[in-house]
Specification:
2 copies of one chain form a homodimer. Chain A is of the alpha+beta class. Chain A has 2 domains: 277 residues, Bira Bifunctional Protein, Domain 2 (BirA Bifunctional Protein, domain 2); 93 residues, Anticodon-binding domain (Rossmann fold). The first copy, chain A, is built from 14 helices and 19 strands. The first copy, chain A, has a 9-stranded mixed beta sheet with strand order 1-5-6-12-11-10-7-9-8. In chain A, strand 17 and strand 18 form a beta hairpin. In chain A, helix 1 packs antiparallel against helix 4 and helix 7 runs antiparallel to helix 8. The longest helix of chain A is centred in the first third of the chain and has 20 residues. The radius of gyration of chain A is 27 Å and the shape is elongated. At the A-B interface, helix 1, strand 1, strand 3, strand 4 and helix 3 of A face helix 1, strand 1, strand 3, strand 4 and helix 3 of B. Chains A, B: InterPro entries: aa-tRNA-synth_II, aa-tRNA-synth_II/BPL/LPL, Anticodon-bd, Anticodon-bd_dom_sf, His-tRNA-ligase, HisRS-like_core, HisRS/HisZ. Chains A, B: It comes from Spirilliplanes yamanashiensis. Chains A, B: It catalyses: tRNA(His) + L-histidine + ATP = L-histidyl-tRNA(His) + AMP + diphosphate + H(+). Chains A, B: Homodimer. Chains A, B: Keywords: Aminoacyl-tRNA synthetase, ATP-binding, Cytoplasm, Ligase, Nucleotide-binding, Protein biosynthesis.
């Protein structure tokens, strides 16, 4: 076989990067569980008609067929997010779930996009959602950002800002302005960061039937942002009135106030946030990473009152999704994260000759039984070569079984210090037991 | 949308089952790391020509296409195991890896099989592999079963038996018998458990050109099994000689002896084990779960000397794969595993009225900061209703914030015992902190 080459859009991390990803995921999952979210995984595939029901991403769906298809199978596609599969799961299993149902889900998703920087065709998402039967209390909309803030705080990554808006604010405002169909307005405003206010104004007149004055008002609304409830007065000062606008402002104030009390600085109300997918009906979230603002949102979501419904059954929900691959891709791209070694191994047991392998295996077993990750050397080479095996992987300790009844000894190969040791009791320093992830010290910092 | 129905072959666990799966996976991953295996994930897709290179499963590959394909993309399929992608990864990244390279990989794989009991189209595998450049020491073949034994021991599942064979034993034996092409012989013998010795004998004469005496000898070899090195004498007693047979017997004895010293009873030499995939060149492993022997192997693998090679570069490997979905599917099918609650939550904070939500949130935050998973009640309903919310999910404790300066109290809703408590210091009993997975007590046991 010829030497394989990477596939554009399908990132693969080397083991040290995967170790960083795992520690990040463990922290995220642990935080989700501390908030009572139960774990769930759904299958990777959904019937194609489900995937094509909603949203702008439907054109990006990967369709599956069996190589030797004998017909009769439903048309299947790979899921492009975790919200649509979750809504389907809730409908399918409603009789076996307790509502309100809180779940988290950490899985790969796939989108057949044209690859470009920061856009992947396969990527990992970490989602939380809460759904209830018939109605879902609004306080859950305020809880979502707090969970994400807790999950990401304490990780060696730059701080995040969660930008919150509410579709009701936008739709009510547009309606109050006299623009009855909010969809083309939202789609135009959603492009603000990409194409700028001038072109958005042109789009609004072209695609949403707005007058110049209406377009200007939409842009004024989108320009409002504040870390506290003061945004509401600035919206009201624009002079547009509508009951839905009032309802949206009240909701958005509750989200901002709750976050300001729990995690000052975490959340801002930002009225330009629209979200492309059209299943959101109220609160919407986007998140930027400090220093990476131009790279787009690394954590998004919102309230969806109508996504999961079947006949008379309706399960409104709210959720938020951390784009784990997106986040790590940005940080890895600037070499911003580092891990203290390239393998889980803490101790390498050296070998004097191949006959000593069973005894070395018993030393390794004794260390492992106390939680110390241990390998035995691959061959009874010269000790210098065995030490280099450890060095190249960042394994901090090499264990030398004692010959002829002499005590074993263990060497810290960074300092060169070697001490007698007993595999039944020896402990490495706490900082060496597991690989440690930290922010990389770069020339610029 | 109409009520969705399950897709055959794509299992989905409810959250309590997923919690069981997660604890199993955590134990498996932790054991792999204790042995120094580094984590890796590869993309879900491989170029189709890679997937179709080897083995009988190629017809089962799921092929991907983008819904709106603009052409020019490579043909891609979903991986059907984790070994072929790993071999590709090693070739692609050889210059950035340290050899011997030990990695573990826990991911979904997909096979477009006709669904039947115990066969899935999407399932989770947990693999370890070790590859080296040019040659790989044989002692790694002996290490594989020990890692799996350690990973599964201590879990609340029935004991496993790992059955080991060696392709060199079979091929040398067949060659010594005068059967030059081992492939059709292996394929026939591989069907022994399914169709029985009579039909295998007929297959051997029909498809492998065997005489009745040769077929009988092949069946005699396949009938040999032993938990220790005694199998080798029984093979030699069949009177067939061949250098490859001798090499295979020596290797197989080393695997069995190492396992007998480390984990008595874990491994047996079983000379009928063949493995369907044709990339194995030496040791092969299969594993049965006590009480589920007829359900086939739940952990399989082997030595592959030629899977990863490109031009002059060659990376022989050995690996073993725990069929996590297969294993759990069997146990869930008999309701053999149970978890102490249906959610991670340990404490539900009750609410007297909605205005108390911020204060309840502070109690929850104090408990979470000390690792105690906590939810706040969804609404300020009557306490009886809030307690039923906890009961239905198996949440053991309900927390009552004290009114007007009175102390908080916490109630164990199983015993009814209620005590004053301070969220800054209260600890649940250790057994209640996290959900506990255990073997279910069934009527028959």
């Amino acid at each position: 076989m010829s030497k394989p080459t990477p596939l554009s859009g399908f990132p693969e991390w080397l083991p040290p990067q995967r170790m960083i990803e795992q520690q990040l995921l463990a922290r995220i999952a642990r935080t989700f569980e501390l908030y009572g979210f139960a774990p769930l995984e759904t299958r990777a595939v959904e019937p194609l008609d489900q995937l094509l029901r909603k949203g702008e991403t439907s054109k990006e769906v990967y369709v599956l067929r069996r190589l030797q298809d004998s017909g009769g199978d439903a048309d299947l596609g790979l899921h492009f997010d975790l919200t649509v599969p979750f809504a389907r799961f809730v409908l399918e299993n409603a009789g076996r779930l307790q509502f309100p149902f809180r779940r988290y889900q950490i899985q790969k998703v796939w989108r057949g996009e044209r690859p470009q920087e920061g856009r992947y065709r396969e990527f990992l998402q970490a989602d939380i959602d809460i759904v209830d039967r018939d109605t879902l209390p609004f306080h859950y909309d305020a809880e979502m950002p707090l969970v994400v803030g807790d999950a990401l705080r304490g990780l060696p990554i730059p701080p995040v800002t969660i930008m919150v808006n509410n579709r009701k604010v936008c739709e009510g405002f547009y309606r109050g302005l006299g623009l009855a169909d909010p969809e083309p307005v939202l789609r135009a405003v959603d492009k603000l960061d990409k194409i700028g206010p001038g072109k958005v104004a042109a789009l609004l007149t072209e695609t949403a039937g707005a007058t110049d004055a209406q377009a200007a008002a939409c842009l004024e609304l989108a320009a409002i942002a504040a870390p506290d409830a003061s945004f509401a007065d600035r919206v009201r000062a624009l002079g547009v009135t509508d009951p839905l606008l009032d309802e949206g402002l009240d909701e958005l104030v509750r989200v901002v106030d709750a976050a300001a009390a729990h995690s000052p600085g975490l959340v801002v109300a930002d009225l330009k946030i629209a979200r492309g997918l059209d299943y959101y009906t109220g609160t919407v979230y986007e998140t930027v990473l400090a220093g990476y603002e131009s790279s787009g949102s690394i954590c998004s979501g919102g309230r969806y009152d109508n996504l999961a419904s079947s006949g008379a059954e309706r399960f409104p929900g709210v959720g938020i999704s951390i784009g784990v691959s997106r986040l790590l891709g940005l940080l890895f791209g600037r070499s911003a994260l580092t891990v203290s070694r390239a393998v889980p191994t803490c101790v390498l047991v050296a070998l004097t000759d191949e006959d000593a392998r069973p005894a070395a295996g018993r030393v390794a077993g004794a260390l492992r039984s106390r939680g110390i990750a241990t390998e035995v050397a691959p061959a009874a080479a010269k000790f210098g070569k065995q030490i280099r095996y450890a060095e190249r992987r960042g394994i901090p300790f090499v264990w030398f079984p004692g010959a002829d009844g002499a005590a074993d000894s263990v060497k810290d190969i960074r300092s060169g210090e070697q001490v007698d040791a007993d595999a039944a009791v020896w402990q490495p320093p706490a900082a060496d037991l597991l690989p440690v992830v930290s922010a990389a010290v770069t020339a610029g910092s």
